Each structure stands twice: as C-alpha cells, then as structure tokens.
Amino acid sequence: MCYQHYFEKWNSTNCINGTNLIITVRYDTGARFRGSDQGVTALLDLSKKSGISANLEMRDCIISFDGGFTSVYARNIEKVLHICEAVCLEVCESVLSGHIPILISGDHSSATGTIAGIKKAKPESRLGIIWIDAHADLHSPFTSYSGHMHGMTLAASLGVDNIASVLRNPDQITLDFWHCFKHIGGMSEKIKPSDIVYVTLRDLEKQEAHLIDKYGIRNITTKELRDTEEADIGTLILEHLNDCTDIYLSFDTDSLDGAISKGTGLPVDNGILPKEAETLIGMILKDPKVICFEITELNPKLDINHATTNMVYQILEKAIAVLK
Ligand SMILES: [Mn+2]
C-alpha cells in the first residue's frame, strides 16, 4: 500500500482562514445499499443553487483504488480502509491549519478516518463524540450479521472486538484488515466509551447493547429530547462531555424520523424531526470545543420527492452559518 500521493497533497495545501472548509467523501462502499455517494453530490448541487458555495472551500477526498479484499464478515474492508486513510490525512491537515472541517460523506464508515484524522492532528486530545444516529455502529467482524462496514465505525475507533458477544468466526485475512482498520492514523483506542453520547439511538442489536450496558454509554432518546426544555438539551449533552477537550458531532441522516424521511439506507421510525435536529445541531456547534462536523448517509435513490434531501440540506446550511 502506498499513500505517498496523500502525503504530497498534505504538504502542499494552504489554509484559507475565515472560510468554511467542506471535505466531501463521495463513496457508498461501507453501506448496504448503493447510492449514498449521490447524497454528497445532491447536497453540493443545492449549495451551488443557493449561492452559499461561493464562500466555501471544497476538498474532495478521492482514492485511486478499486476492488480489494472483501469478505462476508467485513464487506469491502480494504477499499474502506483506503478511503479512511485518505479522510484521516485530509481531516488532520485541515485541523492543523485551523479549520473546523465540515464533512459531507456518503456512508458512515468514513467517520473512522475522520476520528483518526482529528487524533492525528491532536494526539493529546480527549475527543468527545456526539453521534446523532438511529444506530450504534458498534459492530465488529466478530458480531456483525451483515458485515457492512458502516456499522463498525465506533467499535473500530474504540478498538473493541466485543468477543463476549461473538457470533461469527472471521478468517485471518479479514482479521488482519480489521486490525489495520482499528489502527488508522497510527494509533488505536482513539476514544473512550464514556466520551460518546448517542442521540436518538433506537435500532440496536443485542451485541451492541452489550457494549452500551457494559460501558454505560449515554443515549439521549427521542422522548428525552422532547421532554427536555429546548434551550437545555444542548447543555445536557455538552455537560456529559465536560472532561473532553474537543468534540466531533456526526449527524447520520437515519436519525431523522423514518415516517417522514425515506432517503437513507436504513430509515427507522420515532426519530428526530428536521427542525429539532437543526436547533440541536445549531446549539452544539456554537460550543468552542467543536472541532469537526459531519453529515452522512443521505441516499437520493431512496428519497421520495427530494424530501429527505431538502431536510438535510437545511441542516447543512444552518451548520455552515453557525460555524462561520
Ligand atoms: Mn451511522
């Protein structure tokens, strides 16, 4: 494997201060359904139409790699690894140059690279994760029924295999790639379970529930979100991450209520409403500890009358305005 071209790019990029930096990751390699790569394009098209893209610096994370090793335990793991290595370097460079990068990614597997990039830029950072998502993304090749990499993002970043919940017996090559995946950015165990806050997590498999119970990982349910005063909900989340030095907020489109939002791979009912998401994200992004924001898993192929695309675009536009 040779990452020389990424290093060359890394060393040659200049920072433009005062401009929002958007990093696009136009891949759907880690997802069950094809088409979330087009979600990135759809959001960029809307940003061009609205005129806000004129004030944005854009970087597209592209890899010159196709195919690679795949297995039923970890589908497309070699390609996802390449994508995450590229994302890691792009995020690292942008953080080092003083940006708060906004990631627009196809599927959630690339967030393993994003977390690695933040930690590569700031190895001493205690990184808090706010994961607005219907799913926990805590599987490993030992526990995943489906083998899709976008369900393994946080397990890889935590460096956990969850052997206590073992369901499958992956082959050695899969395990070698999984080892590399957990070590993207040159380190493992990049985050602590106590420094994760889930928001609207509601489609959980028992292997993941085991980890959540074991570590007591916080989940703000949709009900708790609504039962809390709107002005207090951001504080509630941020207080949980009080000991963290930096915060990465990742918004998975499937956190939106599946009853009104179909444009994502795995919609689930009883989720957050677009206005609630916009308000919550707006509050959190005002915190000076925020180091990175991401929107992911929009799939226009599954959308109905562009409804989800428009909802997610509104959230993106608000986030860009707050981070300015
Ligand atoms: Mn996710």
Number of strands: 8
Mean pLDDT: 94
SSE pattern: HEHEHEHEHHEHEHHEHEH
Question: Domains counted in the coordinates: how many?
Answer: 1
Structural class: alpha/beta
CATH homologous superfamily?
Ureohydrolase domain
Query: What separation lies between the terminal Cα atoms?
Result: 37 Å
Q: What general outline do the C-alpha atoms trace?
A: globular
Low-confidence stretches: 1-17
> Main beta sheet, described?
8 strands, parallel
Strand order of the largest sheet: 2-1-3-8-7-4-5-6
Assign a percent range to the helix content.
Answer: 25-40%
Count the DSSP helices: 11
Can you offer a commentary on this structure?
The protein has 324 residues and is of the alpha/beta class. It has one domain (4-323): Arginase, Chain A. The protein is built from 11 helices and 8 strands. It has helices at residues 4-12, 37-50, 77-96, 111-121, 153-158, 172-182, 206-215, 222-227, 230-240, 274-285, 307-323, and strands at residues 20-25, 56-60, 102-105, 127-132, 196-199, 218-220, 246-252, 290-296. Strands 2-1-3-8-7-4-5-6 form an 8-stranded parallel β-sheet, with helices on both faces. The radius of gyration is 18 Å and the shape is globular. The structure holds manganese (II) ion.
Describe the structure in brief.
With 324 residues, this protein is α/β, with parallel strands linked by helices.
Task: List the keywords.
11 helices, binds manganese (II) ion, 324 residues, Arginase, Chain A, disordered N terminus, single chain
